Amino acid sequence: MGTLTVTEFVTLDGVAQAPGGSDEDRAGGFAHGGWQMPLLDEETVAAIFARASEMDALLLGRRTYEIFAGYWPDAPDDIPFKHLLNRVPKHVASRTLAEPLSWQGARLLVGDLPDAVADLKARHDAIHVIGSLDLVQSLLRHRLVDHLRLWLHPLVLGAGKPVFGRGTVPTQLRLVASRTYGNGVVELAYALAGAPAHGGPDDVPRPAGAGGGA
């Protein structure tokens, strides 16, 4: 059974909207497209590409698919992501698009999301989701996400679509890896660990040797 990993490029205030190009996403009057580009360097680009190269299938929401399909097929040949994204099978969750899709190797998901993702996991070892914020909420709601990778950037925008917005299902995460890069970007890899636990003051661990009384 394969795994599903969600990758998001996010600001310190949780915005993940339109890190690619300045004009690729103006939804809701968003005016900060391209915010990620000045923060990239060779080290982080190499790391991002290495993580992306682990996938053998890509799952996208409609909006992110349209952005990707409008750029990557004809992107410059010296960008390694072009060859990776054009090569892997691409699956698109959409109720409005119709076959055939314009991007070679792209197909629409068929059926309900839980069943469709289960079918993908049966056929692929490592499915990645990039961006696709509306789809991510649905995947989290159905507890279909196995891993979450956040590339946290030293920037606040104060506006834009958050990774975790209203309606996000409460979920406990377990940090499995982290790395800080020289440009201030922090890579955080989590495994999803089910519903969060709850407690109170009596559940707080006491330091060894700490005691009460006079």
Blueprint of the fold:
Layout lengths: L2 E9 L30 H11 L4 E5 H8 L10 H8 L2 E4 L12 E3 L4 H11 L2 E5 L2 H9 L5 E7 L19 E8 L5 E7 L22
Parallel strand pairs: 1-5, 1-6, 2-3, 2-5, 3-4
Antiparallel strand pairs: 6-8, 7-8
Query: Going across the major beta sheet, what is the strand order?
Result: 4-3-2-5-1-6-8-7
Might you state the CATH topology name?
A: Dihydrofolate Reductase, subunit A
The CA-CA distance between the termini, in Å, is 58 Å
Order of helices and strands, N to C?
Answer: EHEHHEEHEHEEE
Kindly name the structural category: alpha/beta
CATH A-level architecture: 3-Layer(aba) Sandwich
CATH homologous superfamily heading:
Dihydrofolate Reductase, subunit A
Strand content: 15-25%
CATH class: Alpha Beta
Number of domains: 1
Number of E-state strands = 8
Instruction: Work out the radius of gyration.
Output: 19 Å
Question: Share of helix among residues?
Answer: 10-25%
The average pLDDT is: 93
In DSSP terms (H or I, runs of 4 or more residues), the helix count works out at 5
Major beta sheet summary: 8 strands, mixed
* Unreliable stretches covering 5 or more consecutive residues: none
Shape: globular
